[in-house]
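Predicting structure from sequence has reshaped protein science. With that in mind, we have picked out one protein's residues alongside their backbone shape tokens:
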Amino acid sequence: MIGYFLSSIRSRCGFTPDMMAAAMGMRRDEYDRLERERRVATRDERALLESMCANLRIAV
């Protein structure tokens, strides 16, 4: 969820990854790792939701 907010701030404010890393007190490689983790979590959450929806359709 935090990743969603960070992504929103970055896109709405036009921040570069370097600017985001500096604002968060991180090195750029740390910020890049955080972004990768956010993307994986988002993919996993989406897959879980799709699975739950498919199960609900079967149950109905």
